Amino acid sequence: MRVLVIPEDFRKDAFLLEPLVAAMFAHLGKPRARVRVCRNPLLGAVSQALSWERIQEILDLYPMVDLFLLCVDRDGVVTREQSLRHLEARAAEHLSVQRGFLAENAWQELEVWALAGQDLPPDWSWSEVRQEVNPKERYFEPYAASRGMQDEPGGGRRTLALEAAQRYTSRVRMLCPEDVAGLEARIARWLARP
Predict the structure, then answer these.
(1) Which end of the chain has fewer CB within 10 Å, C or N?
(2) In sequence order, what are the residues at sequence separation of 6 or more whose Cβ sits closer than 8 angstroms to the Cβ of residue 112?
(3) Domain 2-191, architecture per CATH
(4) So where are the chain's domains?
(5) 3-class SS of residue 4
(6) Mean pLDDT by 10 residues, the chain (194 residues)
(7) Which of 69, 125, 100, 104 is nearest to 181 (CA)?
(8) What would you report as the CA-atom Rg of the chain, rounded to the nearest whole angstrom?
(9) At CA 160, angle to CA 37 and CA 107, rounded to 5?
(10) Closest Cα partner for 102 from 65, 144, 141, 61?
């Protein structure tokens, strides 16, 4: 099974998405799924990732992919999910029945998925981390810096996502029910289709 994850900007998001989505598929009984992050074309912004023309370009560029996953930040935009469902409907009309396209917005940013797999400082409230509109600046970057990871590729994203992937089943999916567990359930339904 070939899975292509489409981020709004792969330059940092790839470090987060590849290990976490691979862990999700392993949890779903597909440990050998080939999970890759789309690096061509570079979208570079959420506006590009939400553009049907750009999504259609990617769908057509990768005919060998079985399932496309668009993963973007919510950024406090309450209508973001409606935009994603619209893209899913367009993709369903465009793709053959053997291929799928699902879209999810992180609640609020993808970096929170990596934080979900960590033992965070005791004075941090998980509900506050989840609800913060800018958790990357407020929580992720300070946490990565506290662990001396700010200068590694992805600013700590690689190491923290790999660590979180090891705790996917026990923490990440449980602490992120609106987005991670929701996406996982939707993938499970897609995998179970006739």
Answers:
(1) C
(2) 106, 129, 130, 135, 139, 140, 176
(3) 3-Layer(aba) Sandwich (3.40)
(4) 2-191
(5) strand
(6) 97 97 98 98 96 98 98 95 98 95 96 98 96 96 97 95 98 97 98 92
(7) 104
(8) 16
(9) 70
(10) 65
